[in-house]
Amino acid sequence: MSEIVDQINHVHREVGSREVPDGEARTVLLRRTYDAAIEDVWDACTDPERISRWFLPVSGDLKLGGHYQLTGNAGGEILRCEPPRLLAVSWLFGENPGFSEVEVRLTAEGEERTVFELEHVAVVPPEMWDQFGPGAVGVGWDGALLGLALHLTGEGAPADPEAWAASDEAREFMTRSSERWGAAYQVSGAPADVAAATTRATTEFYVPAR
Description:
Strand order of the largest sheet: 1-2-8-7-6-5-4-3
Pfam families: AHSA1 (PF08327)
Protein name: SRPBCC family protein
Family: Belongs to the AHA1 family.
Domain Activator of Hsp90 ATPase homologue 1/2-like C-terminal: 35-148
Low-confidence stretches: none
Organism: Streptomyces javensis
């Protein structure tokens, strides 16, 4: 197993649900520890220039109450910003996106270790959840945590992201991510056959047959 694929093993995943004003929301939570000071991790998650190096280019009025836009992806409002420990944003994509929020929580574990938690809470169309389960967003967030890990260690993102996404290494990473989200879904109470079906659908979406 490559070191990049092994990054899958550093993440704890949870699946749940929560009541929000728009109804029942689904939740996915990822937690891992980075060997970096909390101030460094916070800066990597909030500085636009650094965000573009490990995630996506971002623009907007990047302050509390302001709005942001990730190139080709989500945008929304900055709801809470409490440096260096808490960042919460609405996470909206497409027309009529409904309720969707992401919260990042950081906890220092000594001077050079930081526990990173990301929780995505969203009201998901039932047909989408029934087909893909938590893996629909979970695989993408696993990729983001991988990008942050490479950035914090100075390795940086692959020189050609599109080429890497089609590589055997990336396909193995996404396959294992999908499997881990299926396992987390089953732990949350989903029947084994349902978790298996959503895992297959998620894997086929992210890792289509060649």
